[in-house]
Design goal:
mainly alpha
């Protein structure tokens, strides 16, 4: 459970920058990279999101995180229970990504 929390926190920190006028996937990857995460890690995180979230939720998430710069935790809490479960499933897959900011606090 602690790993999920760390992955979620690193994910939140990595995705708070600004995105360009690219598709949702590229916006999220660029946002993550802009926050200092390795490109390979960012691609892994966003691939996990895209694989586990519905297309609609993935697109809405890209808008909220990249364009509107909403805090990820706050955004996830605003979702329906089903959508929260999709994020939980995505976080499970994100655990395989090598995060560079996994400090143990």
């Amino acid at each position: 459970m602690r790993t999920i929390t760390l992955a979620g926190l690193a994910f939140a920190a990595a995705l708070t920058g600004c995105g360009g006028s690219k598709d949702s996937h590229d916006q999220l990857v660029d946002t993550c990279i802009a926050e200092g995460e390795a490109p390979e890690t960012c691609a892994c995180i966003v691939d996990a999101m895209e694989a586990k979230l519905s297309p609609d939720l993935f697109k809405r998430s890209a808008v909220a995180i990249s364009r509107e710069k909403r805090p990820v935790g706050e955004y996830i809490l605003s979702l329906s229970d089903d959508e929260k479960m999709q994020f939980f499933d995505a976080e499970q897959e994100m655990e395989t990504c090598e995060l560079s900011a996994t400090e143990d606090e």
